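Worked problem 6 (solution included).
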Amino acid sequence: MIILIHGPDAWTAQTHLRSVLAECEPGAPGPTHLDGRTITLPQLIAQVGTAGFFAARRVIVIHDLVARASRPGKSGGAPDDTAASDHEPPAALDLAPLFAATPSENVLILIDSDLSIVPAHVKRSLPSDARILAGEAPRGQQLVAWVVKAATEEGGVMDASAARLLLNRLYPNSWSTKPANPRFDRPPDLERLRNDVAKLVTAAHPGAVTAHHVDLLVAQGDTDQIFRFTDAVARADLPAALDELAKLLDAGEEPFRLAAQLHQQVELAVTLSAPGAPSDPGRIGRDLGLSNPNRMVGIATSLRGTTPRATQADLVRATRVDHQAKRGELRDPEDVLYEMVLDRTGTHRRGEHHERGGK
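Solution. The predicted structure is:
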């Protein structure tokens, strides 16, 4: 039997591995774990072809082998797997001989937790009864339910609203749905989520995890600096916006999060300028359930002298950029940010914005 487990989510892949090992024949000896990054193909073939001494079945787990079969010259075989010269990259590792050498009574498990896609030539060489288990994190309501369950397993309580706040804080652009353009996808990392949930449960003990705990313990980046950037965009101050954006990107801030903040700023501006809206921006922020209701005060200040029609036009432009990203017309996450900044400030001098953004 051959089972191939891959990522991209390491937690899910390891969960699949534990489940598969639990399915193996009770009473069988423990599995043999091998490092697929360094072992040679002949050594692997010898291992999988050896019969068990104390049981009819052997279980062999090979870690990080399939990645070596993914790209010639980058993750190919070890030097003694191929006859490549010093000037030629090694050929991609051919796993067909390994699969052919695996007797039906043994269990061969290949696990590559970081591998997103199994190479087509590896799939073609697998026997028809082989199993492929993908380790992809859930999205949307399934992910919310996973977070709530993780809190319970850690001995605490977290409701769905707190779970959504946590997900919005960590993966604002990708936790609910998978983007159509893979380059804009930042998949949820369940191992990181589990660690954050455990931290929140400990802090909230013996009570339930609330939005306050998420705000206190899962802050990401310099929020004040992000607001300086979004406020500069709202004022249509191109030099200040580009300067603040360059600082954020240099500090390692995620482009996905910055784009989400810009889009939210536009949506909140529309709410503030709507006919019949309360005059107190802080009250509107509280009614909307914002973690920082006073943020609406800053947005209201940036809207002075702006008509409701202008804020509606800003929303139309932001939505257009979002559609361009989803259709793949904007391929780099940073391009989405620059497009939104230039749209809001009314200029598309691309040479200037790239020069400023790269300084």
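Discussion: The radius of gyration is 26 Å.
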